[in-house]
Design brief:
Layout: E1 25-26, H1 33-36, E2 42-46, E3 51-59, H2 61-64, E4 73-83, E5 93-96, E6 100-101, E7 108-115, E8 123-136, E9 139-142, E10 150-157
Antiparallel strand pairs: 1-10, 2-3, 3-7, 4-5, 4-6, 4-8, 8-9, 8-10
Length: 159
């Protein structure tokens, strides 16, 4: 923000080339994604196609996801957000996994995709997240304990 030497104080704007400073930023300072998803969460983005991919291979929920009292399920999330410094930025592309039962001992290969319209002139933020739920009478209720829900800016692509 301080690299904006043209705008008045309080009206400075974030420049796309400075977005790389946000890489690996944890949006929840109480937990890190890597501390609750004990299997690596891998992200990739193809600037030509606009496709983003989140993979968590060999995931065994009962063994590889930190437990939260009262939680029965989790969901993983991938978010793609374009940024060019103007007000015309589009809404993020978001995809969430199915609800994953925490007591499941079956290995799974989790793969989520999200797609943006390819535009090499814009910066792209790739975020990965995980949130906890409790299943009660057939309905999933989010657990709002900020100690465990995580969202991380994993990668930043700039033109």
């Amino acid at each position: 923000m301080q690299s904006d030497t043209l705008s008045a104080r309080g009206e400075r704007v974030l420049k796309p080339e400075n977005l790389v400073m946000l890489q690996d930023l944890e949006c929840n300072d109480r937990t890190k994604l890597a501390s609750i998803s004990l299997v690596p969460v891998l992200l990739d983005f193809d600037r030509i196609s606009g496709d983003g991919i989140l993979e968590c291979m060999g995931l065994i929920p009962h063994l590889n996801i930190a437990k939260l009292q009262g939680a029965t399920h989790v969901r993983y999330t991938i978010v793609l957000q374009e940024f060019n410094g103007e007000n015309s930025d589009q809404r993020p592309a978001i995809n969430r996994s199915a609800y994953i039962e925490l007591n499941d001992l079956t290995p799974m290969n989790l793969r989520l995709t999200a797609t943006l319209a390819a535009d090499a002139a814009k910066s792209v933020l790739l975020l990965a997240g995980m949130e906890y739920f409790q299943l009660v009478n057939g309905a999933y209720y989010p657990l709002s304990n900020g100690q465990y829900n995580a969202l991380t800016i994993k990668q930043v692509y700039v033109p």
